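Why this split exists: single-chain examples teach little about how molecules sit against one another. For that reason, every record in the complexes split bundles all components of an assembly together and asks for one structure covering all of them. Below is a record exactly as it appears in the raw files.
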Amino acid sequence: MHKPQIKKPGKNLTKSFFNRSVLEVAPDLIGATLLVDGVGGRIVEVEAYHHTEPAAHSYNGPTPRNAVMFGPAGYAYIYRSYGIHWCLNFVCEPAGSAAAVLIRALEPTEGLPLMRRRRGLPDPRLLCSGPGRLCEALRVTAVHNGLALDAPPFALFAKPEPVEIAVGVRIGLTKAVDKPWRYGEKGSRFLSKPFPET
DNA sequence: TGCCCGATTAACT
DNA sequence: GTTAATCGGGCAA
Protein backbone atom coordinates (compact mmCIF):
# COMPACT_ATOMS: atom_id res chain seq x y z
CA MET A 1 0.00 0.00 0.00
CA HIS A 2 2.62 2.43 1.04
CA LYS A 3 4.71 2.91 -2.07
CA PRO A 4 8.40 2.98 -1.19
CA GLN A 5 9.46 6.44 -2.22
CA ILE A 6 12.87 6.92 -3.79
CA LYS A 7 13.69 10.44 -2.74
CA LYS A 8 15.19 12.04 -5.78
CA PRO A 9 17.30 15.11 -5.11
CA GLY A 10 15.82 16.83 -8.18
CA LYS A 11 14.74 16.43 -11.77
CA ASN A 12 17.06 14.56 -14.12
CA LEU A 13 19.38 16.78 -16.15
CA THR A 14 19.25 16.16 -19.91
CA LYS A 15 21.60 17.08 -22.72
CA SER A 16 19.55 20.22 -23.43
CA PHE A 17 20.41 21.49 -19.96
CA PHE A 18 24.05 21.61 -21.03
CA ASN A 19 23.39 23.02 -24.50
CA ARG A 20 23.51 26.63 -23.29
CA SER A 21 26.17 29.20 -22.50
CA VAL A 22 28.75 27.71 -20.17
CA LEU A 23 28.31 30.83 -18.03
CA GLU A 24 24.63 29.93 -17.50
CA VAL A 25 25.18 26.23 -16.96
CA ALA A 26 28.00 26.61 -14.43
CA PRO A 27 26.03 28.49 -11.73
CA ASP A 28 22.98 26.31 -12.47
CA LEU A 29 25.00 23.25 -11.48
CA ILE A 30 25.57 24.55 -7.95
CA GLY A 31 23.24 22.53 -5.76
CA ALA A 32 22.70 19.83 -8.39
CA THR A 33 23.47 16.23 -7.46
CA LEU A 34 26.16 14.18 -9.25
CA LEU A 35 26.39 10.44 -8.80
CA VAL A 36 28.72 7.96 -10.47
CA ASP A 37 27.58 4.38 -9.98
CA GLY A 38 25.38 5.68 -7.18
CA VAL A 39 28.18 7.44 -5.30
CA GLY A 40 28.55 11.21 -5.01
CA GLY A 41 26.77 14.28 -3.69
CA ARG A 42 25.74 17.89 -4.21
CA ILE A 43 27.87 20.01 -6.48
CA VAL A 44 29.11 22.99 -4.47
CA GLU A 45 31.93 24.37 -6.66
CA VAL A 46 32.58 24.59 -10.42
CA GLU A 47 34.58 26.61 -12.94
CA ALA A 48 33.73 27.55 -16.54
CA TYR A 49 36.12 27.29 -19.50
CA HIS A 50 35.68 28.37 -23.11
CA HIS A 51 37.93 27.98 -26.17
CA THR A 52 38.06 31.76 -26.69
CA GLU A 53 40.19 32.27 -23.57
CA PRO A 54 43.75 31.02 -23.10
CA ALA A 55 43.17 29.18 -19.82
CA ALA A 56 41.05 26.56 -21.60
CA HIS A 57 42.52 23.29 -22.86
CA SER A 58 40.60 23.91 -26.08
CA TYR A 59 42.20 27.33 -26.70
CA ASN A 60 44.70 26.02 -29.26
CA GLY A 61 42.22 23.90 -31.19
CA PRO A 62 41.29 20.21 -31.17
CA THR A 63 43.80 17.54 -30.12
CA PRO A 64 43.31 13.89 -29.19
CA ARG A 65 43.14 14.86 -25.52
CA ASN A 66 40.53 17.61 -25.77
CA ALA A 67 38.49 16.16 -28.66
CA VAL A 68 35.45 15.58 -26.45
CA MET A 69 35.33 19.30 -25.63
CA PHE A 70 34.71 20.05 -29.31
CA GLY A 71 31.80 17.63 -29.46
CA PRO A 72 28.16 18.15 -28.43
CA ALA A 73 26.97 19.20 -24.98
CA GLY A 74 26.13 16.74 -22.26
CA TYR A 75 29.25 14.56 -22.26
CA ALA A 76 32.09 14.05 -19.81
CA TYR A 77 35.56 15.43 -20.61
CA ILE A 78 38.23 13.95 -18.35
CA TYR A 79 41.91 14.77 -18.30
CA ARG A 80 44.99 13.88 -16.27
CA SER A 81 46.26 16.72 -14.11
CA TYR A 82 49.88 17.07 -13.04
CA GLY A 83 50.43 13.48 -14.12
CA ILE A 84 48.66 12.32 -10.96
CA HIS A 85 45.01 13.27 -10.70
CA TRP A 86 41.90 13.00 -12.88
CA CYS A 87 39.60 15.97 -13.40
CA LEU A 88 35.95 15.83 -14.51
CA ASN A 89 34.28 18.35 -16.82
CA PHE A 90 30.80 18.65 -18.35
CA VAL A 91 30.85 19.73 -22.03
CA CYS A 92 28.46 22.63 -22.73
CA GLU A 93 27.16 24.68 -25.67
CA PRO A 94 26.66 23.49 -29.28
CA ALA A 95 29.43 21.34 -30.78
CA GLY A 96 32.48 23.42 -31.68
CA SER A 97 32.22 25.88 -28.80
CA ALA A 98 34.66 23.70 -26.88
CA ALA A 99 33.26 24.96 -23.60
CA ALA A 100 33.10 22.96 -20.40
CA VAL A 101 32.45 23.17 -16.68
CA LEU A 102 35.10 21.75 -14.35
CA ILE A 103 33.54 20.06 -11.32
CA ARG A 104 35.70 21.19 -8.40
CA ALA A 105 33.92 20.08 -5.24
CA LEU A 106 30.97 18.06 -3.92
CA GLU A 107 29.21 17.86 -0.61
CA PRO A 108 29.25 14.06 -0.16
CA THR A 109 25.78 12.56 0.35
CA GLU A 110 25.70 9.08 -1.21
CA GLY A 111 28.11 6.22 -0.63
CA LEU A 112 30.22 7.82 2.09
CA PRO A 113 31.79 4.56 3.36
CA LEU A 114 32.94 3.70 -0.17
CA MET A 115 34.35 7.18 -0.69
CA ARG A 116 36.20 7.04 2.60
CA ARG A 117 37.78 3.74 1.62
CA ARG A 118 38.79 5.03 -1.82
CA ARG A 119 40.26 8.21 -0.36
CA GLY A 120 41.84 6.59 2.68
CA LEU A 121 40.74 9.54 4.81
CA PRO A 122 37.87 9.64 7.32
CA ASP A 123 37.22 13.41 7.24
CA PRO A 124 34.10 13.96 5.08
CA ARG A 125 35.39 17.43 4.25
CA LEU A 126 38.37 15.95 2.45
CA LEU A 127 36.45 13.39 0.41
CA CYS A 128 35.37 15.56 -2.54
CA SER A 129 36.75 19.06 -1.85
CA GLY A 130 38.88 19.42 -4.96
CA PRO A 131 38.74 18.25 -8.58
CA GLY A 132 41.28 15.48 -8.09
CA ARG A 133 39.82 14.42 -4.77
CA LEU A 134 36.26 14.01 -6.04
CA CYS A 135 37.45 11.95 -9.01
CA GLU A 136 39.23 9.60 -6.64
CA ALA A 137 36.17 9.38 -4.34
CA LEU A 138 33.82 8.69 -7.27
CA ARG A 139 36.42 6.58 -9.08
CA VAL A 140 36.25 8.72 -12.20
CA THR A 141 39.08 7.92 -14.65
CA ALA A 142 39.86 8.09 -18.35
CA VAL A 143 37.38 5.29 -19.02
CA HIS A 144 34.61 7.83 -18.40
CA ASN A 145 35.96 10.28 -20.99
CA GLY A 146 33.33 10.92 -23.69
CA LEU A 147 30.48 9.18 -21.85
CA ALA A 148 27.01 10.77 -21.87
CA LEU A 149 26.01 12.47 -18.63
CA ASP A 150 22.35 11.38 -18.86
CA ALA A 151 23.07 7.64 -18.76
CA PRO A 152 24.79 5.23 -16.36
CA PRO A 153 27.23 5.24 -14.73
CA PHE A 154 26.43 8.96 -14.46
CA ALA A 155 23.31 10.33 -12.80
CA LEU A 156 22.62 14.07 -12.54
CA PHE A 157 19.72 15.78 -10.80
CA ALA A 158 18.85 19.47 -10.92
CA LYS A 159 18.94 21.51 -7.75
CA PRO A 160 15.61 21.01 -5.95
CA GLU A 161 15.56 24.60 -4.66
CA PRO A 162 17.47 27.84 -5.28
CA VAL A 163 20.97 28.15 -3.86
CA GLU A 164 22.92 31.26 -2.92
CA ILE A 165 25.82 31.50 -5.38
CA ALA A 166 29.27 32.90 -4.68
CA VAL A 167 31.43 34.06 -7.62
CA GLY A 168 35.18 34.43 -7.83
CA VAL A 169 38.29 34.00 -9.94
CA ARG A 170 39.39 30.55 -11.04
CA ILE A 171 42.03 28.61 -9.15
CA GLY A 172 45.45 27.39 -10.18
CA LEU A 173 45.71 29.31 -13.45
CA THR A 174 48.52 31.32 -14.96
CA LYS A 175 46.48 32.62 -17.92
CA ALA A 176 43.20 34.56 -17.96
CA VAL A 177 43.51 34.69 -14.18
CA ASP A 178 41.02 37.54 -13.75
CA LYS A 179 37.91 36.00 -15.26
CA PRO A 180 35.30 35.55 -12.48
CA TRP A 181 34.23 32.15 -13.77
CA ARG A 182 34.39 30.21 -10.50
CA TYR A 183 31.01 29.54 -8.87
CA GLY A 184 30.19 27.98 -5.53
CA GLU A 185 27.56 27.56 -2.90
CA LYS A 186 27.84 30.48 -0.54
CA GLY A 187 29.00 29.35 2.88
CA SER A 188 29.50 25.69 1.98
CA ARG A 189 32.00 23.86 4.17
CA PHE A 190 32.94 21.55 1.28
CA LEU A 191 34.66 24.02 -1.07
CA SER A 192 38.21 23.35 -2.26
CA LYS A 193 38.97 26.90 -1.07
CA PRO A 194 36.76 29.54 0.49
CA PHE A 195 35.41 32.40 -1.60
CA PRO A 196 36.69 35.76 -0.37
CA GLU A 197 34.01 37.57 1.63
CA THR A 198 32.48 40.52 -0.12
C1' DT B 1 63.49 13.14 -29.67
C1' DG B 2 63.91 16.23 -25.76
C1' DC B 3 62.27 19.60 -22.81
C1' DC B 4 59.05 22.25 -20.03
C1' DC B 5 55.07 22.79 -17.51
C1' DG B 6 50.32 22.17 -15.79
C1' DA B 7 42.30 23.54 -14.59
C1' DT B 8 46.56 19.29 -8.01
C1' DT B 9 47.40 17.20 -3.67
C1' DA B 10 49.57 15.90 0.63
C1' DA B 11 53.32 16.03 3.46
C1' DC B 12 56.61 18.63 4.90
C1' DT B 13 59.14 22.94 7.69
C1' DG C 1 54.81 28.82 3.81
C1' DT C 2 57.32 25.19 0.51
C1' DT C 3 57.92 21.16 -2.33
C1' DA C 4 57.93 16.38 -4.26
C1' DA C 5 55.22 13.23 -6.79
C1' DT C 6 54.56 12.00 -11.82
C1' DC C 7 53.23 12.00 -16.91
C1' DG C 8 51.22 13.34 -21.27
C1' DG C 9 50.51 17.41 -24.35
C1' DG C 10 52.58 20.76 -27.07
C1' DC C 11 56.27 22.85 -29.13
C1' DA C 12 61.18 23.51 -30.57
C1' DA C 13 64.88 21.40 -33.00
